[in-house]
Design brief:
It is elongated, with a radius of gyration of 16 Å. The chain starts with a helix and ends with a helix. The protein has 7 helices and no strands. 29% of the residues are buried. By secondary structure, the protein is an all-alpha fold.
Length: 157
């Protein structure tokens, strides 16, 4: 299989850009995170950008694999549309949580995001097993984020 490096780089840059713009808009988020009461197992603030960067790269590779798949174009287009929708939800979660400090609404939003990620993962897996598997760390991390989000809501209301 020949790699289309231009398409691969663009596929990786899209989620990195979404995450980067969201991080810029919530650039004081770590001060907010450090100031709230957190549940047990809360990781240090420096870990979040590291994990998110890795997850965005994995997402980008997964979307690339789906975009170059040889299967029906309608199937890959549908999967990529779901992927795009979950990226939109991903983008807005940080703003809702950090900028608005609407912890309960952010948790509900995160549940919707998690369901969209699950839908994306299943859709990707049907097209390219590796693409689906690459989405699993993201699915797990967002589930963990849900635990943190709900814990922060309960401890800070």
């Amino acid at each position: 299989m020949k790699i289309n490096y231009k398409k691969l780089i663009i596929s990786i840059l899209i989620p990195l850009l979404v995450g980067g713009v969201s991080a810029f808009l919530t650039r004081n988020s770590m001060a907010t995170f450090e100031s709230v009461a957190k549940p047990p197992l809360s990781p240090p603030g420096w870990l979040f950008p590291v994990v998110w960067t890795i997850l965005y790269i994995l997402m980008g590779i997964a979307s690339y694999l789906v975009s170059i798949s040889k299967g029906p174009k309608t199937l890959s287009d549908s999967a990529l549309a779901i992927y795009a929708l979950q990226l939109v939800f991903n983008f807005f979660w940080s703003i809702i949580f950090f900028n608005m400090e609407a912890y309960l609404f952010a948790f509900v939003w995160l549940i919707a995001l998690w369901l969209l990620i699950l839908w994306t993962t299943v859709s990707f897996y049907k097209i390219n097993k590796t693409a689906g598997l690459l989405m699993i760390p993201y699915l797990i991390w967002v589930a963990f984020a849900g635990y943190l989000n709900f814990g922060i809501y309960l401890l800070n209301r």
